[in-house]
Amino acid sequence: MVSFPLSAVKPGKAPTSDLRWVDLMAKTITSVSHKEEVTVEGLKMAGEDYRYQVVKTLCDLPWSAETAISLLSVIKDMDLPKEELEDVIHKVKEVLKKVDYQSVPPLVYHLVQVVHSKLPHRVLQLVINYFNKQDLKMESSQGQDHSSDIRTEDLMNDDAIEDSKKTDLTEAKGTVILHLTHHAQYNPALVQDFLKHMRSSIWLTERLVTPFNLALAFSLTSVEKFQDKILDSLKSCLLKFFREEEQSQHCQWLRDAWASDCDVRSAFITTVENCGMGWDQVSQGLVQLACGLLESGGGTKGETYASQRAVELAGLLLPLIIKRQPHLIRSVISQLSCFILSSSSPEQYIVILEKLVRAVPLTVLNHHDVLRETLEYLEHLPLGAATHLLLALNPLLKMNIALKDSLMIILRKMLFSRKIESRQIAVRGFLQFLKYFRVMGTLPSSQASMSFSSSLSSTSVNVNVHSVFNSSTNEALCLELLGVLRRCFSQQQEVKCTLYQGLYEVCAANPHLVVSVMELLLQHSRTFMDLRPDALNPVQLKRVVQVQGESVILQEPLGDLLSALAACQAYYHKHRDLVAAADGENDEDNVVSVLNETCSLFDKLIEKLSGCDLGDMGINTNGDFSSGSAAGKKNLLNAQVMATVFDSLLEYIFLTKKPSQETVPTVLSLFRSQQKIVDLITEKNQRPGKKGEGSKTRGRGRLPSKPTAPFKSNLSLRVTADILATTLAEEEGQDGEGANDSIRTVLGNNHGFQMYLLNVVEINLSSFKGLTRLEREKLLPPLKTTAKILLEECIGCVGGPDASDVREVTRLRQSLNIVATIMSIFCKHFKHKLEAVLKDVLGKTEVSSLSVLLHKIAKRCRKMLLRILHHKERDSLLKDATILVQMINTVSQSMDYNSPLLREVQEWVLQLSKDQNFDNPALTEALLKLLFQLSDQVKANHSMTWELAQELHSKLGDHKEDTEVKSHDKYSVVTEDSAPTVLGVTLIHLDTALALVELVVCKMRASLSAGGNYDLEKVEQCIITKCSAVISGIHEIIQSALPLGSLVDHTLTTVTKLYNALSSYVKYYLDLYRLRSHTQLSEKFEKLVKMSGDLVSGPVYPMITYIDTIQRQVSDMGKGTKKGTVLITRAIKESKLIPSLIFAVERYENHLITLSRKSRINLMHGMKVSTNRDFRIMVSALVEDIEGENGEGENGEEEAAGRKNGNGVTNSPTSDRDSGDEDRSVNSPPSSPDVSSSSKKHNFKSSSSNLAQKRKTMSQEHKGIAQSQHQVSQTKKSKMSLKRK
User: Where is this chain compositionally biased, Basic and acidic residues type (predicted)?
Assistant: First the structure.
């Protein structure tokens, strides 16, 4: 019965159509296998052996797709052991190469049933490798260029065939994934093996991130038990890949050692496209991963490159998924809403929601109830996040009346909330309605000033966006909103500030509301003005600042009110034609009246306040200005209000009036009056110094080196940039050029006025980090203007011939610092539009390369830097040079690493470090960091680390006083004074290099188990080259007389990292011997091991002894003092670092010994095995004690040991070395303090035994100690006390 089915699949015969034998075959073979002995053709064998012979025979026969499916269904019921299953899996692997795509799913299904829980990892690996190879084959066939002599008709046929194959392959993938997912529901071993596959591939992104792997992983997330583990593994792999991508952009060595060809973006896009064929289970997992990636983009960690790339990937995937599978939109919106409401930094989630609204607005609107629930919790969001959310949903408000009405009601409730921030959100929401629901004509001012209650009747106004404009409905809506905002005049001053700051943007977006807004503001400003001729101060401070008992309240932010009024009037004058063209039906008389009254208000304020004294303003110069009393708070608020009023008047002059010789005196007069207020508050707020110290006090009375304003300026960055452009920029080819030169001469040379403007810019830049994305976008135009003006100013003036003018040097330094900060903002926050931004800043619109633009900035910085370095009085300008070097560092990081311009910058910086000596630690550190960064970007291997280490060894000297060090003067930047700074930078670079080495070694170890075509010989060559350079540098450093302090800690840490990296490299070879046969060590690796022993392991213990000795000497000198306490604390810290270093050394040597046994090559040849303990055994003292014990009793021996004060055992953090070429032998006097007499007594025999066990791997140099101990144990077996600390 068994022979019949075997004959049915013999070669040369087609399988019979009657396959009823299949049902009997498994039963018969299983029955025979249970027999203890069977006879086959006269041969006796066990039943299991016969079954193995049958399976082997079946596997040797050729299988068609139909036969393979039938046989696998038979084998499924045979319960084969793992060895026989391996043959079946191998046979299926051969069959898969010949069958078409449609036959693959049933084969995989039956194979999974055959294997079940015995070898699921082999099936997974077979399926993954098969589909990945098919994808590569499909991509290569599509990428091949067709020959030009092929007819168009043939090409169309070929494309149709390829499309058909691709469709069949995609369907086969989906079916196989469905089979595996279904099997995983009741067989957890399959998911566990897949998790192992993912974790083993976490260092090899190209192995894990493939379309089939991703689809399978997302599908397996349907198994809830393993869902989080799968998603976490994918997220970790992606973040690790993004971090490596960032490192490779700044390191040529890493690009050469391990060039990653993984295209994460295209792999995910392909997976999303395949999801359109009904892979619902894959889509759900993809959505969950995208939300998980968004979580990595929040808070401070969201500013890293890896987090930003993760958020970008999630922002790409979610809209694509929704477009192909719209039924997932509700789940996505719900998750985004939960994240927005619960996250402390919901910015990235709102960005994704905004993309979804723009990509599929109608699909999102189908679930507007979810959005409405989110808006109900709007008041719980931060102000910036709530504003961004309203802006993201704004397109939907124009499409859905119900959603708009719901939001209007929510905002109306929030306007009367107890929380001030909720009221601010409501104001911004209404302002957004005014901006985006535009009207055809300006509203009549009488209607604009209607009461709030009469305007509520129009809440159900419908906005028909399908027409171009609906003037009547939009007018009614704007009428309502202006009535609502009118009620804000009775709110807190924070709410009013929000209103005033947003009204200009309303006028710019909806120009037909300018006059209405101006009239609204003008009517409100009359409450706080006294414009009578006999009034000295037109500002009624009693109404602006009110006292209620012990509390003082700022009732009106008058400066913001006047600034908003001035900005609206300036916009009207600038766009008069645009506004007038649509205002044909408007009341011209009313418009003229509003404009005239506004101009009259500002003219009277300027006239009365320019040159006004403090007494005329109502400010008591002898009054209390402390914040501890009600009177002091009132005086402070009065002064603050008047200062902001002066800011608004300056803003009005520069916005509405063309600068002329008549306006310059007015500007300076207003500025001087404002400075009187600032000087008064500054003087009142100064704390007196300690009694008797006078101006030399170092206590609380010490004045700040840089004057600071007592309160924030009211000037906006937009206006400040325009003022800087007016006072500093050179405008050629315009009328009145002489007048403009006069203005620039007067205002540009006024140091106080220029410093005030620069302080305003610095204050705005300091708060840039906390702004939302939309707020940053609004500040981009003034930032470009400021950068352009100040960069030109610095290029012309920095490093000028006269460096004795301290005020001018301070102004230029602050300007340079602002330019550097703005450049950093451009490169960090505006990467996507950096080229366009730099074109505007440099005025080079014809340049089409970002690297060229960045190089131009670097060249200008170089020009200023050389001017400073060749200046006669350069010491006072070296701070400016440091800023310039940091700016070059910023722009060079954004340059293309393949650009020859970057190499040019590196060569120039290298030459500068060789030629110049700065005697400035900050400049030296900045220049060397720049040099290391540029060298790593353009060169895979450079000798700069070793050369600088030689320079350091030469300047610091050797820690052995009798050793002479060869002098090296290649780098002028390295001097005895700058050596500690250079050492710190060099150690940081060594740490970075070792981290990269460990990264590549981890990839190599992962590639061993993963297989694949990796050029490991090339990678190993790169590692050996890098390690050799690092070892050479560390060799010079650890022989130097290191300065006591943090540099010693850093050095010990770096050497520890070196041994950890070397241990990881040795583990790679251990894995190689474990996984592969016929493995041989490379000669370069053996040389590297010998190099590590000669150059590092040898000098490291003398370095530890040197550190210990110097530490004790300094501690003894400073004993009992505060400095001595600090040194003792540092000694405790170093005592923790040294054992870590010793452990790393011994672990490295242990791995080498293990590798020597496996390779049968003595890698320890020439290396001296060293030990380090809490005590040191002095052999000579031990022998003397034993000899003395022969003539004395046990008590006498203890007395003798007491007289010797523990010479047999002493505490020491150093190692024992017996080599003759070492300066310190084991018989040298101990460097540690004496052992206390309270130590415990130990049995000498047991101590010798334990010591022998610890030193089994000692080299021949330590045999003297072991022989001495053996001799003692044989001659005297009595007890002896060893004292330990």
Answer: 682-696, 1215-1225
Please, are residues 528 and 558 in contact by the beta-carbon 8 Å criterion? Answer: yes
Element (H, E) at 253: helix 252-257
Which residue in the block uniquely carries the two structure tokens 């034993």?
1186
Among 442, 444, 414, 431, CA closest to 500: 431
Beta-strand relationship, 43-45 and 1176-1177? unpaired
CA angle 499, 712, 558 (to 5 degrees): 40
The residues, any chain, with a CB within 8 Å of residue 932's CB and separated by 6 or more, are: 944, 985, 989
| Closest C-alpha among 369, 367, 365, 282 to residue 324 | 282
Residues in the chain: 1285
Phi, psi of 554 (to 5 degrees): -80, 110
Please name the residues in contact with 703: beta carbons below 8 A apart, sequence gap of 6 or more: 686
Q: Is the dihedral of CA 489, 494, 495, 498 positive or negative?
A: positive
In this structure, the number of other CB atoms found within 10 A of the CB of residue 848 comes to: 10
Q: What is the 3-state secondary structure (H, E, C) of 992-1044?
A: HHHHHHHHHHHHHHHHHHHCCCCCHHHHHHHHHHHHHHHHHHHHHHHCECCCC
**How far is residue 166's CA from residue 571's CA, in Å, rounded to a whole number?**
59
The H-assigned helical ranges of 262-304 are: 264-275, 280-295
Q: CA 657 to CA 665: how far, in whole Å?
A: 14
Which tens digit of pLDDT belongs to each residue from 421-476? 999 999 999 999 888 877 554 444 334 433 333 333 333 333 333 333 455 566 67
Read off the tokens for 653.
């002059």
Q: In angstroms, how far is CA 688 from the centroid of its own chain?
A: 44
Distance CA 405, CA 477 (A): 11
SS3 958: strand
Cα separation, 406 vs 459, in Å, equals 10
Q: CA dist 347 to 90, 337, 891, 1100, Å?
A: 52, 12, 27, 51
Nearest to 838 by CA among 783, 767, 765, 913: 783
Using alpha carbons, select from 809, 999, 1073, 858 the residue that is nearest to residue 246.
Answer: 999
Alpha helices (runs of H) in 916-969, residue ranges in sequence order: 921-938, 944-956
Distances (CA, A) of 923 to 861, 878, 916, 981, 1146: 14, 7, 11, 10, 40
Tokens 């004959």 sit on residue: 7
- Residue of 335, 322, 317, 314 whose CA lies nearest to 276: 322
Distance CA 263, CA 280 (A): 24
C-alpha pair distances (Å), 986 with each of 184, 229, 925, 944, 1092:
53, 40, 10, 10, 19
pTM for this entry: 0.82
Q: How many CB atoms lie within 10 A of CB 545?
A: 21
- Specify whether the CB–CB gap between 503 and 489 falls below 8 A: no
Find all residues with CB under 8 Å of 946, minimum gap 6, and list them.
1029, 1032, 1033, 1036
Query: 184 in helix, strand or coil?
Result: helix
**H/E element holding 44?**
strand 43-45
What pLDDT score does 1264 carry?
A: 44
Contact 884, 858 (CB under 8 A): no
Q: Report the C-alpha gap between 99 and 93 in whole angstroms.
A: 11
The rounded mean pLDDT for the chain is 79
For 1149-1195, write each residue's pLDDT tens digit: 999 999 999 988 888 876 766 554 444 444 454 455 555 545 444 44
Q: φ, ψ for residue 1178 (rounded to 5)?
A: -90, 110
Helix axes 47-60, 82-96, angle to 10 degrees: 10
Other Cβ atoms closer than 10 A to 1257: 13
